[in-house]
Design brief:
Layout lengths: L19 H13 L6 E4 L3 H17 L4 E4 L2 H10 L13 E4 L3 E2 L5 E2 L6 H10 L2 E5 L15 E5 L4 H9 L3 E6 L16 E7 L6 H6 L4 E4 L1 E2 L5 E3 L1
Parallel strand pairs: 1-2, 1-3, 3-6, 6-12
Antiparallel strand pairs: 4-5, 5-11, 7-9, 7-10, 8-9
Helix pairs in contact: 1-2, 2-3
Bound molecules: ribulose-5-phosphate.
Length: 231
């Protein structure tokens, strides 16, 4: 028996999608890559949302079977709504994955995690055979950190300790990310908090240095990943 799934409303992004035309263009490009039997890591954010819709159109029109490994509740619910079967990394390894990004520099170093999903996103990216990053031109930067802070996911018990350690790493600001439509802070899918941190300088060791701090679960810094950027 199937549930009445009315609660999963017709797909609708929570706000107007910026640069929608460019995002739809890259969504179509990624949908073209889908092949019968693929296990695909689905990223989060509005670009990934549009990509999931294009992929659903493609598999329906061409009667293709795939499995999605979603990185967030919103993408998982969207897949369910669209009839795309889902699995987790516990039982499937992605052949390839796609995701969006907040900033991409000339070496394809990235900041991700505006949607607070970077732990699952990094897991998918590290697990997948091939990685596609879908961006519109607004995401290109000369220097990481130009527009976005680096999100750092922190175990709630370690919040004060992590803040103290990060404060000694040349930061210009550290903010606890607060929720909208909920009192208090953003709680990630893994039950953690997010610190949004701006650094004076982002060097190639920073991702590793942040991960060495006890209590840091993940960061939105992606340095030196072998990704193909589609824009
Ligand atoms: C979510 C992410 C997104 O991929 C990133 O924020 C890009 O979002 P959008 O496609 O809406 O511009 O990292 O955690």
């Amino acid at each position: 028996m199937d549930w009445n799934r009315e609660i999963l409303q017709k797909p609708q992004w929570k706000e107007e999608i910026t640069n929608r035309e460019q995002k739809e263009r890259v969504a179509k490009i990624i949908a073209e890559k889908v092949q019968e039997g693929d296990v695909i890591g689905f990223g989060s954010g509005s670009t990934s949302y549009l990509a999931a819709i294009e992929i659903a159109n493609k598999i329906q029109t061409e009667n293709i079977k795939i499995t999605a490994i979603p990185t967030s509740y919103e993408i998982e619910m969207l897949c369910t709504y669209l009839g795309i079967p889902t699995a987790s990394l516990e039982n499937k390894k992605p052949d390839w994955c796609f995701d969006g990004a907040d900033e991409v520099d000339n070496d394809n170093w990235m900041i991700k995690g505006r949607g607070a999903a970077m732990f699952n996103e990094k897991l998918n990216i590290k697990s997948a055979g091939k990685i596609y990053i879908l961006i519109d031109e607004s995401k290109r930067v000369n220097k990481l950190g130009e527009k976005f802070p680096i999100p750092v996911e922190v175990n709630p018990n370690a919040l004060n300790y992590v803040k103290q350690e990060i404060s000694n790493m040349g930061v210009t600001s550290i903010e606890l990310r607060m929720a909208l439509k909920k009192d208090g802070p953003v709680i990630t899918q893994n039950g953690n908090l997010i610190l949004d941190v701006r650094f004076n300088d982002i060097d190639y060791m920073l991702e590793k240095k942040l991960k060495e701090i006890t209590g840091v679960i993940e960061t939105g810094l992606f340095i030196g990943y072998n990704v193909e950027v589609i824009s």
